[in-house]
Write a structure and sequence with these properties.
single chain; 76 residues; mainly alpha; 1 helix; 97% helix; rod-shaped
Length: 76
């Protein structure tokens, strides 16, 4: 009879530890998910900023090319 009680107690402890492990894994997963969301937001901002800078460079290059073309045409 004592072995049965000890076995039941052991199974309850193991069940509790498994439950605790599930909780810890869930908590870690939520933290990872939250950090990935923050990284995604940051990368989105970087993408927009780089896109704006590329557009600004494109406008500047177009102006330089136009100025060079006008200067070249006026010298001919």
């Amino acid at each position: 009879m004592e072995h049965l009680n000890l076995l039941q107690l052991l199974l309850q402890v193991i069940g509790g530890l498994i439950g605790l492990l599930v909780i810890v894994i869930g908590w870690i997963g939520k933290r990872i998910h939250d950090r990935l969301d923050a990284i995604n937001v940051t990368l989105g901002k970087i993408d927009r900023d780089l896109g704006e800078k590329v557009m600004d460079l494109n406008v500047r290059l177009t102006r330089v090319e136009t100025t060079c073309d006008l200067h070249h045409v006026s010298q001919q």
